Amino acid sequence: MVRWLKIGFTLLMTAILAFSLGACGAGSSGTKKKALQNVRVAEVTRSVFYTPLYVALAKGYFKEEGLDIKLTTTWGGDKTMTALLSGGTDIALVGSETSIYVYKQQAADPVINFAQLTATDGTFLVSRKKIDHFSWNMLKGSTFLGQRKGGMPQMVGEYVLKKHDIDPHKDTKLIQNIDFANIANAYASGTGDFVQLFEPNATVMEKEGKGYIVASFGKESGEVPYTTFMAKQSYLKENETSAVKFVRALLKAGKWVRKTDPEVVAKTVQPYFKDTKTDILASSIERYRSQGSFSDDMILSKSGWSTIQEIMKEAGELGQTVPYSKLVNTTIVKKAAK
């Protein structure tokens, strides 16, 4: 009896010890595992143009940096900037011109461009008819379905047309009163001879035989800080470490996009474009990649800043220029690249 009591006591102590060690181990790993930091990001639209962002999300690069990204689509530059200024989001992905508009309103807490996602315009000129030998002069006298006045697509579009001696307001019947989200549908329904479209809408038009891509505004305009990540100056001062981690994940994603087969990239970002076929996504990604639309180093250059303001002046949206040092911070990208 005593022998069995000893055996029972030994087994009990062994179980207690094992439980204690296990509990200690769980507590230890629990303390070592840091909670992810939430970062709210608002994108101006959902676009293949922003592929590196979706890759960073899909492949877990942000989580590797200790960040939990809450992405929302705000559908429009004005709504995106309102979300940022009101504290509804921490970081905005939107055209860099919006930071200039805010600065011109003498904001006490200016919006700072800290990383450039796209380095060219992302739109393409689509023709109703197939044109074997396209010339920009063909737009004269046509009905041109453009973009919203004051937005980057429209301003770059006008900039490119004027380079080819075309004044869209005088030489074309310019339509600008259709919401961004409905432009492709309006064209597919028969509005306009030419239209300015982002991917994948441009490729979809070709696939459906409703239009043909005849030129790239991105190639024609050259380097432009088209879409950048920006945040209020106060946020970047208080969260610089997180901003560096954020950019580091994006740099990793951009590198992966540049060296990976477009079809593989397309399958990776497919969950963000459930209504778009993989082959169309792959074609769109390759089109952007081949013309250098995805920024390699994510640094908004002084020359790019000069170009965007020249474009805004041409469009009549800017009087006095804003110094590069006022609204651009390259320190975060440089730290992330180390």
TrEMBL record:
Residues annotated as signal peptide: 1-25
Record has Nucleus as a keyword: no
Record localization: Periplasm
Keyword Signal listed: yes
Primary location group: periplasm
InterPro entries xref list: SsuA/THI5
Positions of the SsuA/THI5-like domain: 51-258
Alphabetized UniProt keyword annotations: Signal
Cellular component terms (Gene Ontology): periplasmic space
Protein family (similarity comment): Belongs to the bacterial solute-binding protein SsuA/TauA family.
Name of the protein in its database record: ABC transporter substrate-binding protein
